[in-house]
Amino acid sequence: MTLNRPLIPGRAGALLAELGDRAVCCDLYDEVGAPVYHDLAGQDTHEVRELLTLVRTVPGPVLDLAAGSGRLTMPLLASGRDVTALELSGSMLKLLTARLAEAPEALRNRCTPVQADMSDFALGREFGVIVLGTTSVSLLDAPGRKGLYHSVRAHLAPGGRLLLSTVDLTAGDQAPTETEVEFTADSGRSYRMFEYWTPGAEARTVTVFPAVIGGEQVDVCTTTIRVLSADQLEEELRQSGFAVCSRRLLPDVGARHHSVLIEAEVTA
Predict the structure, then answer these.
(1) What percentage of the chain has pLDDT greater than the value 90?
(2) Pairing status of strand 259-266 against strand 242-249
(3) How far apart are CA 227 and CA 224, in angstroms?
(4) CB-side exposure of 51: number of CA atoms within 13 Å?
């Protein structure tokens, strides 16, 4: 879905202005942006090992929320678990389905893709572990997070665990206002990714350009992600009937990312 010109700050905004009418803005999760997001996710193994370690301690099927194109779904399946992959974006689910089609049949048969909203879902079954990784909780506003916690409570088996991660920009030194990373994905496509955050602001902006700009049209993918501290999420979880079992500071990624993994269970 093509967006109207969003207000993009910093160097990314200046580059967008230079491109003028050649630039076509899209959401990072729509039909145009989904392959770009898939390329980004394919470069990122952050938190995967830590999540898998915790998942192994709890039996039962796994629900992977905001599964995207399978960044966590595929490792979870490879670990031998039955996985339901819930994703709102049809474009993302198409990418996941294509990956599953190329996977071994035994692995493919243990995955159930579901198109649904992580803030309001009813699957009619319980799970030993519900995972919300890739800091995707930051995509939800306050009412959305309240709905998420309610839905998770209804789907966690007794003794089950909720695992969710967040980028806690209060967990270290204040980050620079803007960072830029250039990389080449496994697909062979190259990108320039800008991330802009003003210390204290409620959200950060991520904008992705092709590294080599040519042709009459340039697809520019962007999204705005809320900044949610681990303290805030833990308090919301407690208010929604969860007890926090552990909080783990994950290895830093780049100059600004201080990711935290929270483990919670439903209170009696």
Answers:
(1) 68
(2) antiparallel
(3) 10
(4) 30
